[in-house]
Amino acid sequence: MTRPLHPRRSVLYMPGSNGRALAKARELPADCLIMDLEDSVAPEAKAAARAEIAAALQTGGYGRREVVIRVNAPDSPWGADDLVMVARSGANGVLLPKVESPATLDLALRQLQAAAAPADLPVWIMAETPRGIMALDRILSNQPRVAVVVMGTSDLAKDLRLPAGSGRNGLLHALGHCMLAARAHGVDIIDGVHVALDDDTGFRIACEQGRELGFDGKSLIHPRQIAVANECFGVAAAAAAAASEIVAAWQSARNNGQGITVIRGQLIEQLHVDEAERVLALYSAAQALQG
Length: 291
Description:
Largest sheet: 8 strands, parallel, barrel
Distance between the termini: 29 Å
Helix content: 40-55%
CATH architecture of the largest domain: Alpha-Beta Barrel
CATH topology of the largest domain: TIM Barrel
Number of helices: 12
Shape: globular
Order of helices and strands: EHEHEHEHEHHEHHEHEHHEEH
Strand order of the largest sheet: 1-2-3-4-5-6-7-8
Number of domains: 2
Strand content: 15-25%
Radius of gyration: 20 Å
Number of strands: 10
């Protein structure tokens, strides 16, 4: 299945109960906004947060940004009502928390269908528990509605009993496992949050590591993190120029009946051209988003 290409460098969580934050998000340079009904909203505030998000989306003004709603678990006391609201909201997607089996995803899809949600509404899923991560390949199998996997590294670190402040070494196996599953099924995957807001150096290191691991973007908890995430996961102008050179050289070679070409000593084949075209598409999409 060919999916629309979206820049997802910066994916910012916004508490659904904070109307002022939802309004401010219209001016932020984040690629994606996750309006949250789950962890950041107290049980007694769930209904009010649902109404806040619905009102914000009805008002609109979010431009080209993807707006996704993170609901409570479908089998929780709030999940069914959350999914009914999502179905009518006009959001660009729904994020399901703690998906641990295909059955969880199937239940949410049935509830969305019953609420007359758009049949092509993209579904994002959280990979944040050992059970869910071990089952991720099965969860993604034959599920074309799933567009994005979002790592929940805070919950995962707790479940893995990793020492506080121990860095990300203990997460690397799980991150790599999820990366393989996501790529095997052609979906994007977003790295987990960095919760130390005063640790700018550590945040940049985490972003650079995530990019090196192959992640498409970083989930964020504060607007101050957007610029670095956009930089680390974005396509620099120099990289776009290099990609354009590869595509042009390849086209010239093809016009001359050649199946390969060489640029600055590097052999260029179809696989390099495919990646160059993806890079150029991402660059163009990000430029349009900023415009």
